[in-house]
Write a structure and sequence with these properties.
The chain is an alpha+beta fold. The protein contains six helices and 13 strands. The strands form two sheets. The protein has a six-stranded antiparallel β-barrel with strand order 8-9-10-13-12-11. Strands 2-3-4-7-6-5 form a six-stranded antiparallel beta barrel. Bound molecules: arginine (ARG).
């Protein structure tokens, strides 16, 4: 074969370098820069064993361990998650037809087998869950095997001071980090703040069901986020824990977009559900 001599090598290199520089120096669109949805940083799954991934390889494939939602280990055999995670809309079939539902704890990278994978032996979905408004968005899963007591997290009770607006909170998940379907393979968390009910009531008034997926009601929901946006939960994080004051205060439920200014995250208010959870554990 004849050597390629049409383009002299040095000028080819300078053209390529120039192009690379142009790409690197171009201003990034705000969307890509600011909406690092679970706002930001990787966390060590091994030291957060109470953050679990809900998974079904049958339904969602092998590559990310079949992860499709999050959950919180609140008892040695009890995981709480969002009711909507077990809906036919999410699973594609009725939850009773999913034979390989698992809760995965301690898996930093969904592409690996690290941590523990536990079969779910019982599913209880809050009969009060309203898929129209997303009110009462909680389900209780019973695990086939017990996890160590030290792997569990406490649920917030009614009157818990951590619900006060302005309290620092952290949300965990393996969900979308971009708002555009870029799913994480590692566990991440974002720092947010507990917000006043009125912040979500204003962002999501009743009668606007549809695009945003719900209407805020403070009895079973709680509002969290950051005023400027940029840090939030997103698709795939649902059911995962919002932690404040060392207790699970919320579960990722819904929101309009992800990390948008004036569109906080809406979470299931765990304190309002704690009695139901206890009644349906084990
Ligand atoms: N419904 C989403 C899920 O199923 C969670 C959306 C949370 N959105 C938000 N902006 N906080 O994963």
């Amino acid at each position: 074969m004849r050597p390629l001599r049409a383009i002299p090598l040095p000028s080819l290199i300078s053209v390529l370098l120039g192009a690379l520089l142009a790409i690197l120096l171009a201003p990034q669109p705000a969307a890509a820069r600011d909406r690092i949805v679970v706002g930001g940083h990787p966390v060590d799954a091994a030291t957060h064993p109470w953050v679990v991934a809900l998974a079904s390889r049958d339904r969602f494939g092998d590559s990310r361990s079949g992860q499709f939602c999050g959950g919180a280990l609140v008892g040695v055999r009890t995981v709480i998650t969002a009711a909507h995670c077990l809906s036919t809309e999410v699973l594609g079939v009725k939850h009773g037809e999913v034979d390989d539902l698992r809760a995965i704890s301690g898996r930093g990278d969904l592409g690996t087998r690290e941590g523990r994978e536990m079969p779910v032996s019982k599913v209880w979905i809050n009969p009060g869950f309203d898929p129209e408004s997303n009110a009462g968005d909680i389900a209780v899963l019973t695990l086939a095997d017990a996890m160590p007591e030290g792997a569990t997290a406490a649920m917030a009770g009614s009157g818990d001071a951590a619900y006060a607006a302005g309290t620092a909170a952290e949300v965990f998940g393996w969900g979308d980090t971009s708002g555009a379907g870029k799913y994480a393979s590692g566990l991440r968390s974002a720092q947010v703040k507990m917000l006043k009910d009125s912040a979500c009531a204003k962002a999501y008034p009743a009668g606007t069901h549809g695009s945003s997926g719900g209407a805020f009601e403070s009895r079973s929901m709680v509002c969290a986020g950051v005023a400027a946006g940029g840090r939030d939960a997103c698709q795939g994080d649902s059911g995962g824990p919002l932690v404040a004051g060392g207790r699970v205060v919320g579960l990722v439920s819904w929101g309009a977009g992800c990390g948008e200014e004036g569109r906080p995250g809406v979470y299931t208010r765990v304190s309002a559900m704690a009695e139901l959870v206890r009644a349906h554990s084990g």
